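User: I'm writing a tutorial on reading structure tokens. Could you give me a worked example: one chain, its sequence, then its tokens, then a sentence or two explaining what the tokens reveal?
Assistant: Sure. Here is the example chain.
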Amino acid sequence: MSKIYNVLIVDDHPIIADAYKSAFEFISSENDKIKFSITIVHNCDDAIQEIEKVSKTKGVDIVFLDISLPPSKDGEILSGEDLGIVIREQLPNCKIIVATTFNDNYRIQAILKNVNPNGFLIKNDVNKEELIACIKTVMDNVPYYSKSVLELFRKQTSIDYRLDKIDRQLLYEMSIGTKMKYLPGIIPMSKAGLEKRKKQLKILFEVEESDDRELILKAKEKGFI
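And here are its predicted structure tokens:
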């Protein structure tokens, strides 16, 4: 009897999602003892809905997760990174494979710390053979990292670029033009607390204290917005 693995693919580009699906189907064609039940969603809202549904029923064995996803409609999930954190909380036994175009060292470190994926692919590194190798390796309970991620490990510094949910929400709201005086109604923190956070972010990103625009540009450059 074949073992069926439940797979959730989250990517806002249908062609890329189909490429991931094809890799799973190829593995199944090689081994008649393995089958995959694959669900594809293209945004955070549909992903959350699917996660909530399967957490009560069949569960999910593997999630293929894009990081560059538009925020959810309620603004609670700002990217695939936030989605990965939710998956870790609600489906702790699920294996997460992150795929992203980000290749900034600090951004990769943040994803590794916050999501702790079982597999980590930089899309520019990936071809069909690497996709298949990654899936097989993760299914064997061994972590898999593409060459750009491995290169990061070789160059890794002691800098901790971990931003929490409030930091990312603050950067996001600033990037869409929300004024600081309105932020306490959106983010659960006082205006003074948020100003302190902003000051800390400017130090972290090495930005002049008075320059909000430069902070937003640096955060976008490193993939945090």
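What the tokens reveal: The mean pLDDT is 88. The CA atoms of residues 37 and 68 lie 24 Å apart.
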